[in-house]
Amino acid sequence: MNQESLLNELNDRSREVFRRVVESYLETGEPVGSRTLTRTLSERISAATIRNVMQDLEFMGLLDSPHISAGRLPSQLGLRMFVDGMMEVDPVAPTDRAAIDQTLGNDDPETGVLLDRVSTALSSITRGASLVLMPKHEAPIRHIEFVSLGTDRALVVLVFADGHVENRIFTPPPGQTPSSMREAGNFLNTMAEGKTLAELRTHISREISVRRRELDVLAAELVESGLALWENGSTDARLIVHGRGNLLDREAADLDRIRTLFDDLERKRDIADFLDLTEQGEGVRIFIGSENKLFSLSGSALVVSPYMNADRKIVGAVGVIGPTRLNYGRIVPIVDYTAQLVGRVLSGRKG
Question: Coiled-coil ranges per the record (predicted)?
Answer without folding.
Answer: none
